[in-house]
Design brief:
Elements: E1 2-5, H1 13-28, E2 33-36, H2 40-46, E3 50-54, E4 57-62, H3 64-70, H4 78-86
Parallel strand pairs: 1-2
Antiparallel strand pairs: 3-4
Length: 89
């Protein structure tokens, strides 16, 4: 298991790409990569499965396709899904 928290903070585009490539390579090699991030576009780009946490609890878990299916439309970005889920609070 490879656990990484906010891996893109402070990185320039060149080094951000390097980190993304490394996480993808580890995943392809069979390693579980657990990444926490507030950058939802990065989570959407890199993740096989996504857990959305709100107020310390998992409120959604699945692939992007599963999250889209459950939350009004197949074209929604992760940011839109997240904001729709937490807007009531």
């Amino acid at each position: 298991v490879f656990v990484i928290d906010e891996p893109m903070v402070g990185l320039d585009p060149i080094h951000a790409r390097t980190v993304k490539q490394e996480m993808k390579a580890r995943s392809r090699a069979g390693m579980t990569v657990l990444m926490s991030t507030h950058l939802l576009n990065i989570a959407e780009e890199l993740s096989d499965r996504i857990a959305i946490l709100h107020q310390g609890k998992i409120i959604a878990l699945g692939t992007m396709a599963e999250l889209r299916e459950r939350h009004e439309g197949s074209s929604q970005r992760l940011e839109e899904i997240f904001l729709g889920m937490v807007a009531a609070d």
